[in-house]
Amino acid sequence: MSTIAHSNDPTHGHSLHTHDPAHGHDVHGHHHKETFITKYIFSQDHKMIAKQYLFSGMLMALIAAGLSLLFRLQLGWPDRTFPWLESIIGEWGKGGRLDPNFYLSLVTLHGTLMVFFVLTAGLSGTFSNLLIPYQVGARDMASPFINMLSYWLFFLSSVIMLASLFVESGPASAGWTIYPPLSALPQAIPGSGLGMTLWLISMVLFIASALMAALNYITTILNLRTQGMKMTRMPLTVWSFFCTAILGVLSFPVLLSASLLLVFDRSFGTSFYLSEIYIAGEALTRTGGSPILFQHLFWFLGHPEVYIVMMPALGLTSEIIATNARKPIFGYRAMVGSLLGISFLSFIVWGHHMFITGMNPFLGNVFMILTLVIAVPSAVKVFNYLATLWRGNIRFTPAMMFAIGVVSLFISGGLTGIYLGNAALDINLHDTYFVVAHFHIVMGSASMFGMLAGVYHWYPKMYGRMMNEKLGYLHFWLTFASVYLVFFPMHFMGLDGVPRRYYQFTGFEFMTEWMDMNRFISVSAIMATVAQLIFFYNFFHSMRRGRVASQNPWGSTTLEWTTPVERLHGNWPGEIPHVHRWPYDYSRPGAPQDFIMQTVPDEDLPMAVRGRPTNEAVSGAGVPERVTASTDRPVSASSVFFARFLHRIGLRRA
Amino acid sequence: MNRSMPSGSSVNSARSAVHPREFLMWGFLVSVFMLFAGLTSAFIVRRADGNWLQFELPQAFAISTLLVVISTVTLELARKAARRNEFSALRAWLLATAVLGMAFLASQFYAYLQLTGQGIFLVGNPSGSFLYVISGVHALHIVAAVLAVLVTLYRAYRWEVHSKSLLGLRILAIFWHFLTILWLYLYTFLWWMH
Ligand code: HEM
Ligand SMILES: [Cu+2]
After folding, report:
1. Among A92, A361, A421, A613, which has the minimal tally of Cβ within 10 Å of its Cβ?
2. What is the ipTM of this complex?
3. Crossing angle of helices A361-389/A398-420, nearest 10°?
4. Model confidence, pTM
5. Rounded average pLDDT over A4-14
6. Which residues does chain B have within 8 Å of residue A216's beta carbon, measured at their own beta carbons?
């Protein structure tokens, strides 16, 4: 314990770097220089690891988007040839036409890269790493070493996944859900050969990396919070990363067991998932397995996985909306409660992906009801976002625009989830473009928007400069418009029965009717991708040329904005600040500024503002604002929630 | 190993009595548990489908169980010795634990021989395949644990394990005992299902 006083003592002789407490070395002595390698490559600093994840995520996103453009070309213009294709993808684009097998590979890798490498690793990896130590007030992660290891395992798994693009028989082609028997039998499609093996190896590494990362996040949040940072004073970002990490720890191992059994089926001749299969007219000798078993195991991960992707985006959105509406987040406890509720429920709804597997109708009904129940906490979140925005003093920064975009997309996509969750309706909708529309809006777009919002908002923290706002707006409007133009029409195609994962829609009359629409969607998709180039330009350009950021450019309350603009190893030059209040003290009347940082003790405030916010306190909205972390008397969250609800809709006076 | 823990733990006010590294181990065990929960529930789901070969569990599993239970006792004795700074006892008990772990692996291997003797192979009806995979994955974890015991033994020879430096040993013990309990669970489960 003596080390504590020691390293916290700002008057202590050494400079920060020489006895860098974030390093895990004995505090005494041990001078060491950072080399290029330890600083930029095998870095153990959470901020650098966050950037590594961000860069990898951005690169993967670019590649995954590029793959999708290739197959959108095919879907939009199935009758045209594109001679230049051959020069990019060689054999797979012979004669300027996309090879049907390669089409499936493209769809598979697009999904895999986006879901796992961009929206899981890229999103959680970037922001959990950046914000958890900053916002809970820690010098680094609980284990910086494991943190580094986790990034490099992820890197290795990315390399293997990308390498599978260059395999002669093509990358995995059975879809991102890799259902057997298609994925289990190399003789079924070319993509189930070496490409599939690489996919599995890559995913096993990915799972190991995700687990290490998640354990580190959980440990840091539970163990390393600074003085005064009660759980109920944590920003909602940290809560969302916490729930995400718990979901990861509980669900990724199950994907590992699913993959393990698949590996045995593929390489060792077992038949866990195989039974009664005819290939090329010949019966396979391997019987006794069940492909449905794989679906159970896969979706036990798969459904929590969609929330692993979504919740960090929701957390970032909470933070950005409260900051830029200059209002306390509406219903902090309800927000935390709904995160916990979503996390719990997400483990018991996986069956809604399997309604048509011939499951017992009673079981189907159970899954249906649980699925519809999960709409409740989701709706609570939406409602609270809207209530926070309502009558707020809104500053439309690019980050705020994207955060509002998240809310919009979460609503549009959540609504279609309710259709899909009905077992009876799903018989028609399953495996159609309706599902594609649903998850691209609610998962793909909403979390991507969350990630972009996060980048715009925390860019000054990462690079000490501001991103260009005008380009930000342009990027936002183009992306927002094109996302809806791409995915909204897909609902109607799905309702008409157009199936997903088809190479071309020319065989049946009812599908050919959608030809023009497909072309329109492809054009919009190209527009969406081009819009991202603006973002890339802005991102890299601002790193050098952006306006220099001040320490707290958005007037935020959380701890990361108490660190100096130039980012130090160990985060704070002196002692770690203590926390005295919850993170949403915005617009308290009587306060010197329209925000009070978490580090400000009551004694430093005018008399009127001390203590917990009172009824009149949040006059910005004139609403009873009593449920806050700083309450010393427990108030039932739900009673306050309903009281406020009634107030909002005009049925109750303040 | 003796260094003060990274960052937070020494610098931040500690939030809980549990050391962060120990906490990481608990978290790891949760995910290992989920791995086996996945495998055993797959077993149940698949078995309910019918077409399921029934056969006797190999007797060697009983011997394995005995060995692994004894090994938890020896490991506890090692910890007791470490707390009292009785170094030769510490090394002896650690060695015994490692040997018992290896004996467990050997006994599992013998069980596989008994299985093949009965005509149950990895390839065949899933009821046999599951048995091999589940016990095999558990054995892999035991291999890792035995390696960890050997590392601790090495550290004990370098006087790095003593009454003031018990963290590594404690984390090892958590892992080891967990694997024992896990095996007891798996054995009961398999016995129940056969
Ligand atoms: C109101 C909440 C939601 C409900 C009731 C719901 C319901 C469903 C249902 C029933 C399906 C299966 C459709 C089928 O295959 O026939 C589905 C698919 C899907 N949902 Fe949702 N969902 C909801 C929210 C979300 C969220 C928040 C995400 C992600 C962030 C998400 C991501 C997905 C994905 C990725 C798929 C498709 C997976 C695939 O087959 O490739 N959903 N949803
Ligand atoms: Cu789902």
Report:
1. A361
2. 0.89
3. 160
4. 0.89
5. 36
6. 24
- Please say whether the beta carbons of A582 and A629 come within 8 A: yes
Is pLDDT of A14 > 50?
A: no
Testing the interface with B: which of A12, A224, A579 to mutate, by most B Cβ within 10 A? A224
Q: What is the mean pLDDT of residues A311-338?
A: 96
Q: How far is CA A497 from the centre of its chain?
A: 30
**Which residue type does A262 have?**
L
| CATH fit for domain A350-548, picks 3.20.20.190, 1.20.210.10, 3.40.1190.20, 2.30.260.10 | 1.20.210.10
Concatenated DSSP letters of A134-151: HHHT-SS-S-HHHHHHHH
Give the alpha-carbon dihedral of A433, A434, A439, A441, to 10 degrees.
100
Closest CA–CA distance from residue A258 to any residue of chain B (Å): 8
Residue A59 burial (C-beta neighbours within 10 Å; 0-12, 13-18, 19+): middle
Residues 6+ apart with CB under 8 A from A316: A127, A237, A240, A403, A450, A451, A453, A454, A457
Residue (of A449, A509, A450) closest to A479 by Cα position:
A449
Ligand 1 neighbours (beta carbon < 6 A): A 177, 306, 309-310, 352-353, 371, 374-375, 378, 414, 417-418, 420-421, 426, 429-430, 435, 438-439, 442-443
CB contact at 8 A, B66 and B110: no
Provide the token pair at A370: 């649980």
Residue B54 pLDDT > 90, yes or no?
A: no
Q: Which domains does chain B have, with CATH numbers?
A: 26-47+55-193 (1.20.120.80)
User: Which of 1.10.40.30, 3.30.470.20, 1.20.210.10, 3.30.420.40 is the CATH number of A34-230+271-289?
Assistant: 1.20.210.10
Render the burial of A504-540: b for 16+ CB within 10 Å, e for the rest: bbeeeeebeebbebbeebbebbbbbbebbebbeebbe
Is residue A333 left, alpha or beta, with left meaning phi > 0 and alpha meaning psi from -120 to 50? alpha
Surface-to-core class of residue A36, CB atoms within 10 Å of its CB (0-12 exposed, 13-18 middle, 19+ buried): exposed
Please, which pLDDT band fits residue B16 given cuts at 50, 70 and 90? Answer: low
Tokens of A405: 């975009």
Instruction: Kindly report, residue by residue over A466-520, the tens digit of the pLDDT.
Output: 999 999 999 999 999 999 999 999 999 999 999 999 998 988 888 889 999 999 9
Give me the pLDDT at residue A277, please.
87
Query: In chain B, which residues have their Cβ closer than 8 Å to the Cβ of A225?
Result: 12, 15
**In the structure, what pLDDT confidence band is assigned to residue A647 with cuts at 50, 70 and 90?**
low
Q: d(Cα A135, Cα A430) in Å, to the nearest integer?
A: 42
Distance (Å, rounded) from C-alpha A206 to C-alpha A256? 10
The CATH 1.20.210.10 domain(s) of chain A lie at 34-230+271-289, 350-548
- Answer for the pair A241, A124: CB distance below 8 angstroms, yes or no: yes
Q: Which of A132, A212, A215 would you mutate first to test chain B, the one with the most B CBs within 10 A? A: A215
